[in-house]
Every structure is written in structure tokens, then in C-alpha cells.
Specification:
By secondary structure, the chain is α/β, with parallel strands linked by helices. The chain has one domain (2-109): Resolvase, N-terminal catalytic domain (Rossmann fold), CATH 3.40.50.1390. It contains five helices and four strands, in the order βαβαβααβα. The protein has helices spanning 16-34, 54-66, 76-79, 83-91, 105-109, and strands spanning 2-10, 36-45, 70-73, 95-98.
Amino acid sequence: MKKTVIYARSASKENSEQAIEMQVNTCKEFAKSKGLEVSYVYYDVGSGTNTKRPGFQTMISDVKAHGIKRVLVYSIDRLSRNRNDVMECWANGIEIISTIESIPPEFFQRGC
């Protein structure tokens, strides 16, 4: 099995628990169907316009420290709404997998 972490984010405090729970459950089902081993779940409530979120920062630190190379998200905009942030993750060798979107290789090749 391939080790994977899940990241979920809700943009607002209203209904955040339900939104995060839905994302995490969808990611876990997706991971199981693809043979991915989920080792940890990170989450935040807040804006996706930057990466200065505690759960996101802890996830990046843990991924680097433990050599985990795969982050599973419900959708790319849950990771960040800023394409440069997503590209920075990818540039650091982190494979980003979305449960509802296919990420074409040219997304990363076009540059910032």
C-alpha cells in the first residue's frame, strides 16, 4: 500500500465540521478504492488564499520529515485557491491527488 495523508479545509466556520467530515470520508473511500494507506488526516477552517494555516503547515512539515510523498484532497481548491501554492507542493515532490478532479501533467508544466 502507498502511504498517503489527507488534507481537508472548510472556508468558513459555518458548517465546517460537516464539510470537513464529508471531505475526509470521501477521501478515505477513494484511498481504499485505490489501495492507498492513509496515515494521517490534517484539516483547517479558514481561507484558502494562503498557506498560513496550522493544519496545512503541520502537514507540509510532517510530509517532509517522514518522506510521505502523497497528499489526497477532496478537490484541489481545498489545498489552496492559489495555483502557486499548489505548484510549490508539487515542486517539493509531493504528489497531489484529488478525488473529483484529474490533474493533467501540463497543469504543472505551464509554470506559475
